[in-house]
Amino acid sequence: MTALAIPYDEEPVQEDPPGFDHARIEKAVREILFAIGEDPERDGLRDTPARVARAYAEQFAGLRQRPEDALTTVFDADHEEMVLVKDIEVYSVCEHHLVPFHGVAHVGYTPNKKGQITGLSKLARLVDVYARRPQVQERLTSQVADALMSVLEPRGAIVVIEAEHLCMTMRGVRKPGAKTVTSAVRGDFRDHAETRGEAMSLILGRS
Ligand SMILES: Nc1nc2c(ncn2[C@@H]2O[C@H](COP(=O)(O)OP(=O)(O)OP(=O)(O)O)[C@@H](O)[C@H]2O)c(=O)[nH]1
Ligand SMILES: [Zn+2]
């Protein structure tokens, strides 16, 4: 064994990404457990602060990503008609209560005159960049539409999100099943009722 080898039972130390403080989250979660009257040292809870920190690193990864990180593949295609990806599953976290809201996003655009399109999976990746942050649904919807417009420069973009907020179902007003629908339309989806209508019928058609 060389002096540089890592013993097999020792994990390499993972560095925090910039702007993310794992140790501070652990400390805060421990504090919350105390504050609700729990014992953070009991068996089931001992590792919870570290687990929560790891989960937050994933749930809030979008804070350290830019839309360009998602829309990496842009290519030319002889296609100037609408492209729409429906029913993209979306999980985000309500910034008021820090509990999840989840549902589906529908993302569409009309390519620019050069026929520049992006990979279909990149639209779902773009939704995640903004969903993996503390959010309100309206801002999430607009941010996805605005990012599409600025990075892909299409003739127009449409984003519709339908979601259920756990802060409205498991607590508070307690209305399970209530769905919030938000939309953001840009460019020709905003300017042309016919284009917007076509997209909405494709989205609502559930085909
Ligand atoms: N517009 C919008 N409101 C949201 C979203 N997520 C949660 N909310 C609302 O944020 C509001 C926060 O209201 P407050 O009165 O400050 O908080 P609260 O006392 O916990 O409110 P209740 O949920 O009614 O018990 C609630 O009405 C939530 O339903 C969202 O994505 N968009
Ligand atoms: Zn909430």
TrEMBL record:
Catalysis performed (reactions): GTP + H2O = 7,8-dihydroneopterin 3'-triphosphate + formate + H(+)
Ranges where the GTP cyclohydrolase I domain occurs: 25-203
The name this protein goes by in its record: GTP cyclohydrolase 1
Gene3D superfamilies: 1.10.286.10, 3.30.1130.10
UniProt key word Hydrolase: yes
Sequence similarity: Belongs to the GTP cyclohydrolase I family.
Pathway annotation from the record: Cofactor biosynthesis; 7,8-dihydroneopterin triphosphate biosynthesis; 7,8-dihydroneopterin triphosphate from GTP: step 1/1
Lineage, highest ranks first: Bacteria, Bacillati, Actinomycetota, Actinomycetes, Streptosporangiales
